[in-house]
């Protein structure tokens, strides 16, 4: 069952993977047949291997960002997280839609981000 603890654990794992770019950390976040939507109207990365490949192709350098977040809503089927990503020279607002399976891996992830003025 998805609850706040499950979402918190998943987001913490995401941030750990973000800061390590370790393929095993990335892969552990996602179900084998997961879909990762990176932008509206763009085809998602489908499957764990494609997600790892896509992630590493546009990775940030470890330690280059800070990420703060809070849950907007958590339900058994869908959780929504709002966040702020801070780089040395820019800041982004984030909205994440997270669908976890029964073992805490993400089966569908959508990220939307906007550069702050």
Could you give a quick summary of the protein structure above?
The chain is of the alpha+beta class.
Keywords:
six-stranded mixed beta sheet; Nuclear Transport Factor 2, Chain: A; 117 residues; 6 strands; alpha+beta; globular
What this model shows, in words?
This protein has 117 residues and is α+β, with helices and mostly antiparallel strands. It has a single domain (4-115), classed as Nuclear Transport Factor 2, Chain: A (Roll), CATH 3.10.450.50. It contains 3 helices and 6 strands, in the order ααββαββββ. It has helices spanning 4-20, 23-29, 48-57, and strands spanning 30-37, 45-46, 66-74, 79-87, 90-100, 106-115. A 6-stranded mixed β-sheet has the order 2-1-6-5-4-3. α1 (4-20) packs antiparallel against α2. The longest helix is centred in the N-terminal third of the chain and has 17 residues, at 4-20. The radius of gyration is 13 Å and the shape is globular. The N and C termini lie far apart (38 Å).
Helices and strands, with pairings:
Layout: H1 4-20, H2 23-29, E1 30-37, E2 45-46, H3 48-57, E3 66-74, E4 79-87, E5 90-100, E6 106-115
Parallel strand pairs: 1-6
Antiparallel strand pairs: 1-2, 3-4, 4-5, 5-6
Helix pairs in contact: 1-2
| Overall morphology | globular
Order of helices and strands: HHEEHEEEE
The number of distinct β-strands equals 6
Q: Proportion of β residues?
A: 35-45%
CATH fold-type name: Nuclear Transport Factor 2, Chain: A
List the domain count as a whole number.
1
Largest sheet: 6 strands, mixed
Query: What radius of gyration results from the CA coordinates?
Result: 13 Å
Give the fraction of residues assigned to helices: 25-40%
- Helix/strand-derived category reads alpha+beta
CATH class: Alpha Beta
CATH architecture: Roll
Strand order of the largest sheet: 2-1-6-5-4-3
Mean pLDDT comes to 95
Terminal Cα span = 38 Å
Unreliable residue stretches: none
- Tally of alpha and pi helices: 3
